[in-house]
Each structure stands twice: as C-alpha cells, then as structure tokens.
Amino acid sequence: MLTVENVDLYYGASQAVRDVGFSAKTGEVTCILGRNGVGKTSILRAVMGIERIERGRVVLDGDDITRRPTYDRARAGIAYVPQGRDIFARLTVEENLQTGFDTLKRGDRAVPEQLFEYFPVLRDMRARRGGDLSGGQQQQLAIARALVTRPKVLLLDEPTEGIQPSIIKLIQRVIETLREKGDMAVVLVEQYFDFAHALADRIVVMDRGAVILEGARDELDEADVRRHLTI
Length: 231
Description:
Blueprint: E1 2-11, E2 14-24, E3 29-33, H1 40-48, E4 55-60, E5 63-64, H2 70-76, E6 78-81, H3 93-98, H4 114-118, H5 120-124, H6 135-148, E7 153-157, H7 165-181, E8 185-190, H8 193-199, E9 202-207, E10 210-216, H9 222-227
C-alpha cells in the first residue's frame, strides 16, 4: 500500500533523514523504532507531505505522490496522528471529528458509530471542548479523528507518549482490531518497545537518520533491537 524509497530530508543544511526506505502493507502494522532525534517523526511528516524531501519517492497504492500537497495525500487515503495530538482545543469533540469530513464525498460525511465502540469515552463527551479533555482522552480523539477519513494508511506518531497504562492497552486493542479488519496499513512510530513489539508485523529501526535494521518481527533479534533504543 505504501512504499518509501531512498528518502533524503534536510532542515536547512542539516540532514535529518538519509536514504530511508520501507514499505507498509495493508493488514499489517509496520513499527518504526529508535531513540529521540533519529528522524522517525521526520519520515512520517515526509510521507504526509508536511516536509519536502530532497531525494527519493513516496508511493501510495502504486501512485507516486512525492510532489503532491498534504491535503491531496489526505484525500488519497493517508491519515496522520501527530505526536502531541494537535486536537482543536476550542472545538467540541464532535466538531473535532467532523474536521475529517473534507477528505470525504458529501454522502459519506458522517462520524462512524464504530468509533464510539473503539473509544466509548468520546460518546459521552461529544459536546465537551477538546481542550477540556485529559491527555489520554485527547489521544483517543486524535486517533478517532484520523479514522473518520476512512484511511488506506494510518500514521501514528508515538501514541503512548504521556498516556496512562489503561489507555495504552485500549489503543493497542484498537490497532489490533484495525489490523484484523485488513483494509488499511498502519505505520507506528514508537519508543515504547513492548507496545510496539506486541503489535508489529514488521519493524524498522532508525539511528542518525538512517535505517539500520529492518525485517519481520520474528526475523529480528529482540536484544539487538532493544540495544538501539537504549541511551
């Protein structure tokens, strides 16, 4: 579904991503692991079109989208849950969810009831402003908002950051359910090894802007992967 090929990305004169490539298949979870500052978020932003890449390609379902704008990628089927959530604090939960409608045909502009089965707390808080929610509730809202768009590819940037264990388990169950449905590819950026390892079909490990390990979860040595996550 998604292929990233030989991507280089710079911030000014500083190279943040070096020759990075990986693929994410429908019905699978691809986890990108690594320490802080190794380029994990940058590669997601490159896939979403938020950051311009200097070299390489991003291919979605066979179409080269490397030079397409972010809104066009969203309409093509990529949804992004950024680190820090970035929900709209002054909008209600319902209004936050409705911001995903712009990528949909007019007849499809409804919030799927299934989202409230994934995240029951959002049903009770539909009229509450996003800024009044706890961090864990905002994370649930951010994921639900992305799912409103019915994506082909879901990009998740550290969804466990600052979240209590019970919510982490809930998010894990939701990701497992999405994989079992088999109609989207999930790309998960994480530092929390146990969470990522439990979900991953494939693992990509980054260091200093480059991919240093890649393969199916069961093909990679767990100790070797962990070694590249510790300071």
